[in-house]
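Suppose you are handed only two things: the residues of a chain and a line of SMILES describing fe (ii) ion. What would the bound structure be? This form records exactly that question and the answer produced for it, so the two can be stored side by side and reused later without any lookup.

QUESTION INPUTS
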Amino acid sequence: MGILDLLYKEHRLMKRALNVIEVASLHLKQGKEEAIDPMLNSANFLLHFSVGCHQRKEEEIFFPMLHNRGIPTDILEVMHIDHRAAEDYLQDFIVTLIRYEGDEHRLLSALIWKASGYLWFLRHHLEIEESIFFSRARNLFSNKEQGMLLEQFARWEMEHCTYCSWIATA
Ligand SMILES: [Fe+2]
Ligand SMILES: [Fe+2]
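ANSWER OUTPUT
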């Protein structure tokens, strides 16, 4: 497995969590309160994994490597801006989710609205990364370099993120 396989795999995990949030939103609208648990679990996963790990590895390792291979800074800067915006969307969604769970059920419409905004934004971001950066990176890095990048990711995880270790088995 090379770095791109891992990045695609991490995106798939995030998309799966987004799908869970989408289904949970539908269920909450139908009055199925038990949907709050999977929604909370997925939001929590995205906070730790997407914000706390995946985005940081992209910003600290992957994007600088793309820049070294000629991808302009301003294009990569858009991805950094996207990451900060995705964090804001998620934080806003989680604040509302926690209030809703704490019995503020009048916030249902706001919760659904914030969930859908976050879903739309992150799905769009993942799509852009895959179609513009991941596909291009296949030609920018040899298989050997992709393997070396993978090792850098693994070292980063050992130093910064205990949350990622289960990814290997996901
Ligand atoms: Fe990203
Ligand atoms: Fe990504």
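WHAT STANDS OUT: DSSP finds five helices and no strands in the chain. The chain has a mean pLDDT of 93.
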